[in-house]
Amino acid sequence: MPPPADIVKVAIEWPGANAQLIEMDQKRPLSSIIREVCDGWSLSGSEQFALRYADGPQLYITEQSRSEIKNGTILRLAISPARAARQLLERIQSHGIDARLEALKELAKLSADPTFAAEFINMEGIGTLARLVESGTHFGEMLAFTLTAFLELMDHGIVSWDLISLSFIKQIAGYVNQPMVDVSILQRSLAILESMVLNSHSLYHRVAQEITVGQLIGHLQVSNQEIQTYAIALINALFLKAPEDRRQEDYTNPLEQHLTEMASTLAQKHLRSIILNHVIRGNRPIKAEMAHQLYVLQVLTFNLLEERMMTKMDPNDQAQRDIIFELRRIAFDGENDPTGTEKRKAMYTKDYKMLGFTNHVNPAMDFTQTPPGMLALDNMLYLAKVHQDTYIRIVLENSSREDKHECPFGRCAIELTRMLCEILQVGELPNEGCNDYHPMFFTHDRAWEEFFCVCIQLLNKTWKEMRATAEDFIKVMQVVREQITRALAMKPSSLDQLKNKLRGLNYSEILRLRQSERMSQDDFQSPPIIELRERIQPEILELIKQQRLNRLCEGSCFRKLGNRRRQEKFWFCRLSLNHKVLHYGDLDESPQGEVPFELLSDKIPVSDIKSVVTGKDCPHMKEKSALKQNKEVLELAFSVLYDPDETLNFVAPNKYEYCIWTDGLCALLGREMGSDLTRSDLDTLISMEMKLRLLDLENITIPEAPPPVPKEPSSYNFAYNYS
Questions:
Q1: Which of 95, 229, 275, 374 is the most buried (most CB within 10 A)?
Q2: Quick check: helix, strand or coil at residue 611?
Q3: Where in the cell is it found (predicted)?
Q4: What is the DSSP letter of 357?
Q5: Where is pLDDT greater, at 213 or 529?
């Protein structure tokens, strides 16, 4: 007979004594259980003791967290959090250097525990640590442990960052500004400054006075990618929290943009070239966190365009109208303006029509819709000023055509700008967990404008290849969007490489790709083929199911989302080879291969699993789903619900792992696999199998008594590479 659900069997250790094996009744008060354990070892003062996990982070067990204890867990009797906090507080203020160092080392480890942190903070522990830092008497390991403990304690959100003193900020900034400082101290100092900026509006101003982006450039030129990552993260934090009037000011001439110190520093050639040469093109592969910070920097830089994108043109603003006059002058410079007002107006109307504006009489009205607003006009003027020959060629080439196949430059430029804003998500906040940065945008000081210039030439070329007319405008824009998104997916490293990718994606190639994809999805629609497809589908589904389960048996590493993404914590989960148990456990770092079952201390019998939920239905996503920056995390979240009323919460590292795990868990529970990946694999593999079976047949006929379906799947090998 199985034990009651409220009883868990655990082992409890105490130094120098044999472990106690007890059946812990989860309905009994924790204090009563601790008293009984202390009595077993003849220890008095049970109120001075507590239980902690013996493995992993070794967290204290509380009434709130005790439900997470599983059968077979090894616990350890330890001094209570309050007693530990009091002792450590006394030891870190002692005169003995060795004793103080050991105390700070232990404190750095214990500070990650929320129960201990609350006790230590209640004893004014953070103030004590801050004074140790402000004194400037700590160096080396002692200072590194002090900063680690401080950061861990503040990360719990118990104390407001606004309480931090100016002298503490100056001391931390001093470590960052020193030319030679210990790597561990520099790393923690950068992380503390980043947390200050992100968590306190008032501290942003203080930190911005002590640290400039220019001073952080030196930390991007080191060989340590962790330091580079922290430095870019601090740059991003300063940029993200900068007031709007400091990020970007209004400017009158779009070719003479005036940005404030922050935006100007981010845009200047020096910083961009250092990131390009020392980070992106460095000798080390880009790690996930660095890729995320580069993505954030890319998003924040493009978001400088949002104000212009959302600014409507004022038809009565003479300075704005002069820009349109300049576009006309550059295109038709050889023609002298007539002297009469009516003649000039008629000529202007004709010229604006040749420029491809929708409103020939008052083209300013074309820029009153947002997005793209004035940003489209900025792009057009950049092309006309910087790539004048290209601009003139595009305009004159189309204005001289009489066969209704002219490409309207103005209308196309406006719609293209809107499209590029959508593709690059201008104005959107960065997504947590997204690493989608494009190296080519770090290769030019005016990357956005140059990107537009490449794409407007592509649009003009595609228009001619399609022999399009005005009625085909939407179709052309759809093809151009596909060309651009396919090229960006190839991650070109430079604008020149982007041009090469786009040259290979001409209209004929897009048609070929579409046809190929359509054929792989639809194949043929004749009744014999449909019947063959239906016969093949079950065995292909079984192959996919086995592949998913095999991947679950190999296991995957998942990241625990915390307040600071660079101090990553990982856990690993894999399915037993007999498909009966899910094994999981915490890891100190991301593994390089499979993790043995022996290192995974926790497990869930598959028979106990009730269901799998995804997205906003997950318990760990319900409080986060409203945050815009967690949108992508929400799409990667899933949870296993199992008896009795327990959950195992996941956030997949990417969409592929999400599909593999959700499909695999559904297959494990005997439910339908419904992810996009499964549908895509099913269509692809069925098409491959059908082509193999049809190679030897000139005419397909289905006999009245169909032959038996072979037990072996087919001649092709299902060692399908999903990565």
A1: 229
A2: strand
A3: Cytoplasm; Membrane
A4: -
A5: 213
Instruction: Give the CA distances from residue 430 to residues 192, 240, 424, in Å, rounded to whole numbers and listed in that order.
Output: 21, 10, 11
- Note the pTM of the prediction, 2 decimals: 0.73
673, 667 contact by CB (below 8 A): yes
Name the pLDDT band for 521 (thresholds 50, 70, 90): low
| Rg from Cα positions in the chain | 32
pLDDT, residue 623, reads 60
Range in 214-228, 271-285, 448-462, 643-657 with the lowest mean pLDDT: 643-657
Q: 10 near 72, Cβ under 8 Å? A: yes
Residue 67 and residue 26 in contact, taking contact as beta carbons nearer than 8 Å: yes
Helices and strands: H and E segment counts in the chain: 29, 11
Helices (H), 490-630: 495-504, 507-522, 527-554
Concatenating the DSSP letter of every residue in 106-137 gives HHHHHTT-HHHHHHHHHTTHHHHHHHHHHHT-
What the block records as the tokens of 190 is: 């950068």
Q: Which of 381, 683, 679 is nearest to 521 (CA)?
A: 683
Q: What pLDDT was estimated at residue 539? A: 87
CA-to-CA distance for 53 and 55, rounded, in angstroms? 6
* Rounded Cα–Cα distance for residues 75 and 72 (Å): 10
Residue 239 near residue 247 (C-beta atoms within 8 A): yes
Question: What type of residue sits at position 433?
Answer: G
Mean of all residue pLDDT scores within the chain: 85
Tell me the DSSP string of 137-153.
---HHHHHHHHHHHHHH
Residues 330 and 334: their CA atoms lie apart, in Å, by: 9
Hey, what are 188's tokens? 């923690």
Which residues sit opposite 556 in a β-bridge?
A: 573
Q: Which two tokens stand for residue 343?
A: 């003649």
Q: How far apart are CA 235 and CA 212, in angstroms?
A: 9
- What's the pLDDT score for residue 410? 96
Over range 259-282, report the average pLDDT. Answer: 72
- pLDDT exceeds cutoff 90 at 568: no
CA distances from 496 to 153, 279, 500, 502 (A): 49, 20, 6, 10
CA separation, residue 15 to residues 19, 116, 176, 589 (Å): 9, 21, 42, 28
Contact 59, 52 (CB under 8 A): yes
Q: What is the per-residue pLDDT across 328-338, written as a single tens digit (0 to 9) for each?
A: 999 987 555 55
State the Cα–Cα distance between residues 246 and 261, nearest whole angstrom.
Answer: 7
Please say whether the beta carbons of 548 and 660 come within 8 A. yes
Domains, in order of start, for the chain: 7-79 (3.10.20.90), 160-285 (no CATH), 309-518 (no CATH), 537-680 (2.30.29.30)
User: Are 275 and 439 contacting, i.e. CB atoms less than 8 angstroms apart?
Assistant: no
- Which letter does DSSP use for residue 79 in this model? E
Are the beta carbons of 8 and 26 closer than 8 angstroms?
A: yes
47-93 pLDDT per residue, tens:
999 999 998 888 999 999 998 898 899 999 999 999 999 999 999 98
Output the DSSP codes for 248-311.
----S-GGG----HHHHHHHSHHHHHHIIIIIITSSSPPPHHHHHHHHHHHHHHHGGGHHHHTP
Question: Which pLDDT value is given to residue 705?
Answer: 43
Helix (H, G, I), strand (E, B) or coil at 38: helix
Is 50 exceeded by the pLDDT of residue 629?
Answer: no
Question: Is pLDDT above 80 for 460?
Answer: yes
Residues 6+ apart with CB under 8 A from 163: none
Q: CB-side exposure of 473: number of CA atoms within 13 Å?
A: 16
Rounded to whole angstroms, the Cα distance separating 9 from 174 reads: 52
pLDDT at position 146: 96
Q: CB within 8 A of 409, min separation 6: which ones?
A: 355, 356, 394, 395, 398, 456, 460
